[in-house]
Design a protein that fits this description.
Layout lengths: L1 E8 L11 E5 L10 H15 L3 E5 L9 H12 L4 E4 L25 E2 L3 E7 L2 E7 L2 H5 L13 E5 L5 H4 L7 E4 L8 E4 L2 E4 L10 E5 L2 E5 L17 E8 L2
Parallel strand pairs: 1-14, 2-3, 3-4, 4-5, 7-8, 8-9, 9-13
Antiparallel strand pairs: 2-14, 6-7, 10-11, 12-13
Helix pairs in contact: 1-2
Amino acid sequence: MRLRVRELVLPGLPPELDGLRIAHLSDFHLGTPSRGRRAAERAVDWVAERKPDLVAITGDLLSRPRGEQALLALLALLGKLQHPYVVLGNHDYAISRDPFSRPVELGRLEHGTMLLDTAEVVELRGQRIEIAGVDPRSWLQKRSSDFEDQGADLRILLCHFPRALDTVPSGRWDLILAGHLHAGQIVLPYGFGKLLLAHPGARYPEGVFTREGTTMHVSPGLGTTFVPFRFFARPEATELVLRSR
């Protein structure tokens, strides 16, 4: 797996927040046999060691209920050092064609804040940061997740689905963090490109994208679905270092 530090320039970022570090993790898919659990454990150990300013986890935490205790242990490790902000994904509700997926009922997290069409405002370096999260059920039912503008200095939206970049109001969010696509999971390189077998038409499979003043980072994620392996789609834990220029 890859442990990556990535600088991200955000237009209009206050100078006080230059160098702010956000750990972005996604798609653990705990509860089914795969190498994803080990990848998630390595990722959390790395994040805990680096002590970022914020931790964001963007959904598909569990594929089956038996992974819940492993998830809570990982969140507890993160929670000792930094308060993680969490959204759920479609697999957490077993809304998937994956025959191995089962719904899980996650309640209030002891170590972390679950954002289900809700937002929190935190203060760091004397600046107000809004962190909002989309409930995947709202997204899949095509119900709008409207968030009252908090007038924050940095506005971050957590959404499991990368297509959020196409649907959010122009200029409402400075940064979107998403996952879902596993960088293709099974990828066939060819010539100067690559074919994503699981999501051949994916517009935002992984990496950084921008639209009308909004920047989005799509995590390659850590786990797997359908088959318990990846091919030319390395799992990744990412630390984003925000830059004002």
